[in-house]
Amino acid sequence: MTETERQQRLDREELVAETAGPAPVSTELPPDDPVHAGEETRSQWRDVWRQFRSHTGAMVALVLFIGVILFVTIGPYIWTADPAYVDILARNTGFTAEHPLGTDQLGRDMLARLMVGGRVSIAVGLTAMILAITLGSLIGVLSGYFRRLDAPLMRLTELFLALPLLPLLLLMVTLFREPLSQAFGPAMGIFLLIVSAIGATSWMQSARIVRGDVLGLKEREFILAAKSIGTPAPRMILRHILPNVLSPIMVAATLGIATAIITESALSFLGLGFPPDFPTWGRLLYDAVDQMQMYPTRVILPGLLISLTVLCVNYIGDGLRDAMDPRIRGR
Asked: Basic and acidic residues bias located where (predicted)?
């Protein structure tokens, strides 16, 4: 390097140093309590809970729903009567100390059968809801994010929406009832069949809701910025898309529980649900139809529990929808 080139290089370095000025000094201090450094990230959920608490109907429904859950889960450990025990001598008794809610036509304790039947009905509702929400969310995200998959997946969704659901459920139960009962046993086979049938015919609404939200998210600035730096599609969906569509998924999940409970009760009421020795709320209704004029409480009690559970779940879903809507939460 010649003397002239060396001098020019020194002049350029001096000019850069003069124009750059002193380096900025950060005045941001580290958090005093690192454990609570993420409080701001949890403030959104606090706002959601605060808005949910302001919804009186949703709070009352939540308390009642928790009471129903405790009734069907802890109740059998407190009231230990066998729901399948047949006592012909005690058949058709009223409200007594030995049988607080009476007995049925075979002398089986109604309180124990309501507890066990509620456990089965709610388990069917929760499991079918998880299956339907998982399938619907997957199809909705894929349809909304990948343009080439949008048309075929939406045509599939519209096809399922056009099918008559109750005849389809009856056909599925009729075709697969015996094979699954032989493979997994009467109770587990029917449980898997009903859960699969309800889940496979209940995912369409959640898929369309999630697809609409994903289509809107694709045009947001943070999504476009993530795409510009080459974020792969799986990471984009898991880190940016799914967290932002969690609100409609949770609302659809709460409403899906109510739909699944009603559908299972309808199938059991038609005699196509669980076997007679495996009580559910719908099966209790079916068994009491013939004697509903003489013993109306046998129809009123399971019908009241079904209605109360479905009403509570619907109110909870309504409260979640209002709480997770940022336009309402910001008021």
From this structure: 1-15
Contact 187, 276 (CB under 8 A): no
User: Does 39 score more than 90 pLDDT?
Assistant: no
User: Among 164-173, 183-192, 271-280, whose mean pLDDT is lowest?
Assistant: 271-280
* Residue 331 and residue 56 in contact, taking contact as beta carbons nearer than 8 Å: no
40-45: long-range contacts, CB 8 A cutoff, minimum separation 24: none
C-alpha pair distances (Å), 308 with each of 117, 129, 261, 273, 314: 15, 18, 11, 21, 10
Return d(Cα 241, Cα 12) in angstroms, integer: 48
- The DSSP annotation for 102-168 comes to -B-TT--BHHHHHHHHHHHHHHHHHHHHHHHHHHHHHHHHHHHH-HHHHHHHHHHHHHHHHS-HHHH
Q: Which tokens hold the place of 68?
A: 């129903």
| Each residue's pLDDT tens digit, 246-302 | 878 888 888 888 888 888 888 888 877 777 777 888 888 888 888 888 888 888 999
Region 100-123 average pLDDT: 89
In our burial notation (b when 16+ CB lie closer than 10 A, e otherwise), range 94-133 reads: eeeeebebbbbeebbbbbbbbbbbbbbbbebbbbbbbbbb
